[in-house]
Amino acid sequence: MTTTTPEDVRRVACVGAGVIGGGWVAHFLARGYDVTAWDPAPDAEARLRRLVDAAWPALTRLGLAEGASQDRLTVAATLEEAVADAQFVQESAPEKLELKRDLLTRLDAAAPPGVVIASSTSGYPMTDMQTTAADPGRLVVGHPFNPPYLIPLVEVVGGERTTAEAVAWASRFYEVAGKSVITMKSEVPGFIANRLQEALWREALHMVANGEATVQEIDDSITEGPGLRWAFMGPMLTFALAGGEGGMAHMLDHFGPSLKSPWTRLEAPELDKDLYDAVVAGCDEAAAGRTIADLVAERDQGVIDVLRATGRLPRQAAGHAEPKGTM
Q1: 172 three-state secondary structure
Q2: Were 127 and a residue from 14, 150, 160, 265 both cysteine, which residue would form a disulfide, CB within 3.0 to 4.6 Å?
């Protein structure tokens, strides 16, 4: 393992600069790190700098770490250059197993010995991605949520050949970098939060496909209903409150039989042309003329408002810079 402690990291490499990778770049810059990025796309640097520019107002409102600056971003010409002096590497390539496997093998060969390399994969287990790496022990999953520069959660888990030390180091580093970390005990396909999101997504698609609800009604049912509770209390404790003074035990006794009711259809519906068109048209209608940039700005402000209202602005761990800027 690297002799650099999570608290001493100053230079991060981000490989892959799309929506997720670019979001990581913005997050690390805002937390005061030097960031070197690489992406093979010919227009990668221009797209990345536009993404960081768009994220910076929200990050400024959220609070920047001492020394945070977009000027601390360097875009490298090669993967090897990007990770040559990295103290931590975040990989965010497209979700294609062979691509991930090959890229992690190349990163393992190029990064300094012992430096932890994390993948932003949203579904693949590290066990399947680390098979050809010379030093698989330092490869971990660091699964973020979009946008990584605002949503605190990161799910960390190793593969069968990942060392416990690498998992612990990565978890602590993310905490120092202002993230809320779940260190998973074992690999679960899709991890935790994505499994829950996917179940909700499948139910939503079924209702659209069957003409039972519109896209707008589905979104409103969450933002005006359980989503308000989920912002500060998860579904398990929320359901426990439904049991009154008896808590979860009474809730299960009272509502447990409904688990057999035909309320859910966990099998995914066929994504045929009719369903595809209905979902796309529904989203266009719900946007009501707002551009993607407009919606991103609205989303970012909404996340900041929720974080502020629930007292969960990103924390700065001991040993790292305190935030500055307006709150």
Answers
A1: helix
A2: 160
- φ/ψ region of 56 (left if φ > 0, alpha if ψ in -120 to 50, else beta) reads alpha
What pLDDT, in 10s, does the model give residues 225-267? 998 888 877 888 887 877 788 888 877 787 777 766 667 777 7
What is the pLDDT of the chain when averaged over all its residues? 89
The answer to whether 20 is annotated as binding is: yes
User: What mean pLDDT is predicted for residues 115-132?
Assistant: 96
Closest CA to 6 of 216, 194, 227, 173: 173
* Residue range 287-299, pLDDT digits in tens: 888 888 888 888 8
Q: Domain limits of the chain? A: 6-191, 193-309
- Residue-level pLDDT at 262: 67
Confirm or deny that 116 is annotated as ligand binding: no
21 is in an annotated binding site: yes
Residue type at position 272? D
Domain 6-191 class? alpha beta
Class for the domain spanning 193-309? mainly alpha
Q: Is 16 annotated as a binding residue?
A: yes
Task: Tell which residue, 141, 176, 177, has the closest CA to residue 157.
Answer: 141
